[in-house]
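Write out the 3D structure for:
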Amino acid sequence: MVKTRTALIIVDPQNDFGHPNGALYVPNGEDVIPEINKLRERLQVLDVTDVFLTQDWHPSNHISFYINNPGAEPFEEIILADGTRQTMWPPHCVQGTVGAEFLPGLDRKPSDIVIQKGTAAFVDSYSGFGSADGIKTVTTLMEHLCSKNITRLVIVGLAFDYCVSYTALSAASFGFRTCVVRSATRGISEKTSKIQEDNMFHKGIAIAETIDDTCDWIRKTSPF
């Protein structure tokens, strides 16, 4: 029997989300960086060494930017021409800009794999796996996870109520045992965070409050 593996996915730890001057700053988003670093160190002791970083990497004409949709206002939801419901965001994480870069202080290793998402102008991708329908855009994340025989995922980063939860929900739908670490993520709003937490609960996704809880989850769910 081939041993299963666990991977850490750090979702969008980028300046536009985690820096107070970022274009789409998540309140207290910078606080996740030291917690993620501590988590990573603890997970290494449990032989969790596969680390992936997702990175919003939008073209300037991205469909989610309100400035690219005449008459739209920031944070409102509109219906696109193809019938998709789309939240309007300020321009953020534009390819090649400082806002799209990873936050300073984040521990990184040469072996880390960066998964860029949201690269297609006319499709949004909150999930690290690609667009919500799993068809219009697909990232390389699944390919990498399968090649490494990874079956469990620990997910952290920004923001809890959007890209973190969407990535976790995608992972669960693909059959990965999934855990989101609350202390290593922050949400945009309490309302949407509660909605997404309920959605994750109903899909069997574990919410670990702390790093210690996360390590306990890995031990308890390990078949070896």
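The domain at 5-221 is CATH 3.40.50.850 (Rossmann fold).
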